[in-house]
Amino acid sequence: MNIILLGPPGAGKGTQAQRLVERHGLKQLSTGDMLRAAVKAGTPVGLKAKAVMEAGQLVSDEIVSALIGDELDAMGAGTGAIFDGYPRTAAQAESLDAILASRGRQLDHVIELDVNEDALVERITGRYTCATCGKGYHDTFEKPKVEGTCDKCGGHEFKRRPDDNEETVRTRMAEYRAKTAPILPIYEARGIVARVDGMAQMDAVTASIEAILA
Ligand SMILES: [Zn+2]
């Protein structure tokens, strides 16, 4: 089984990927991680990538394809892959098809964790933590029992992360849409895109993903 998992920041993609790894023995292939590992290990592809990066250039699709091919070969035919952050372009999607086909594999599912942007803004901008003990709260969903007092430690100071603001969330959503726009239509035309409500409880999201894979 080989899948692509897509989801904007805040949709819980990391958690769901981890659960897929645990439940199905899949391996998560993040091109950034693979690149760093190959450079560190000094593989032929890693050395090529290192030279390109040291020259201040972007790593080519060809190098990324070689990295993925090496990784799939190392994993063995029995282990499926979760592609994370790749492909980003139509050309990369085409390369991925070729890489998989040459190893007797195919892409089975593209699963997108769908979010309602306004609800995501509310979820993220409302969260804050106790400055003393770190307990998490939310303006709407989890207020302290006594206003202004931490339930856990009785502290009165709270803090918010500076990037938990509406503008940042909407910018990240726009970036996510721009990144996935080139590839989603390709997979939609093949009928392998499935959308799951990323705003649901984590376990419910997992159950929906399991239903798609079943
Ligand atoms: Zn506290």
TrEMBL record:
SUPFAM superfamilies: P-loop containing nucleoside triphosphate hydrolases. One of its GO terms (molecular function) is AMP kinase activity. It is an enzyme of class 2 (transferase). It catalyses: AMP + ATP = 2 ADP. Pathway: Purine metabolism; AMP biosynthesis via salvage pathway; AMP from ADP: step 1/1. The keyword Zinc applies. Zn(2+) binds at residues 130, 133, 150, 153. AMP binds at residues 31, 36, 57-59, 85-88, 92, 161, 172. It comes from the Bacteria. CDD domains: ADK (cd01428). The keyword Metal-binding applies. Residues 30-59 are annotated as: NMP. Its EC number is 2.7.4.3. It is found in: Cytoplasm. ATP binds at residues 10-15, 127, 200. Keywords: ATP-binding, Cytoplasm, Kinase, Metal-binding, Nucleotide biosynthesis, Nucleotide-binding, Transferase, Zinc. PANTHER family: NUCLEOTIDE KINASE (PTHR23359). NCBIfam families: adk, PRK00279.1-2, PRK00279.1-3, PRK14527.1, PRK14532.1. Monomer. Catalyzes the reversible transfer of the terminal phosphate group between ATP and AMP. Plays an important role in cellular energy homeostasis and in adenine nucleotide metabolism. Belongs to the adenylate kinase family. Consists of three domains, a large central CORE domain and two small peripheral domains, NMPbind and LID, which undergo movements during catalysis. The LID domain closes over the site of phosphoryl transfer upon ATP binding. Assembling and dissambling the active center during each catalytic cycle provides an effective means to prevent ATP hydrolysis. Some bacteria have evolved a zinc-coordinating structure that stabilizes the LID domain. This is Adenylate kinase. It comes from Novosphingobium pokkalii.
